[in-house]
Amino acid sequence: MQTRYTEDFQEIRRLGKGGFGRVYECKHKLDESTYAVKKIPSPDQERAEYLREVKILAALRHPSVIRYYQVYFFCSVCKYLARPKAYTL
């Protein structure tokens, strides 16, 4: 299934995993920038909780916290998209 996420990004490799999901190194297909994408399984009933977190992340600016860029909701999966400053390959 083609989604906005799969149209925009190519997954390179998995960077890590935790209790809430997995993080992947991805390359944007148009601007060729590297991003860290966090994929979180999200049942529909939890969507409001994730949206509250997304709003907090969108407003947060701190040198020790990875910057949030956007979120995708589809196929019951929440995807956080971040382009961390300190992330180097």
UniProtKB/TrEMBL annotation:
One Pfam family from the record: Pkinase
Gene3D superfamilies: Phosphorylase Kinase, domain 1 (3.30.200.20)
UniProt protein name: Eif-2-alpha kinase gcn2
Domain Protein kinase: 9-89
GO MF term list: ATP binding; eukaryotic translation initiation factor 2alpha kinase activity
InterPro entries associated with the record: CC_SR_Kinase, Kinase-like_dom_sf, Prot_kinase_dom, Protein_kinase_ATP_BS
Keyword Nucleotide-binding: yes
Annotated positions binding ATP: 39
Organism placement in taxonomy: Eukaryota, Viridiplantae, Streptophyta, Embryophyta, Tracheophyta
Keywords noted in UniProt: ATP-binding, Kinase, Nucleotide-binding, Transferase
GO terms for cellular component: cytosol; nucleus
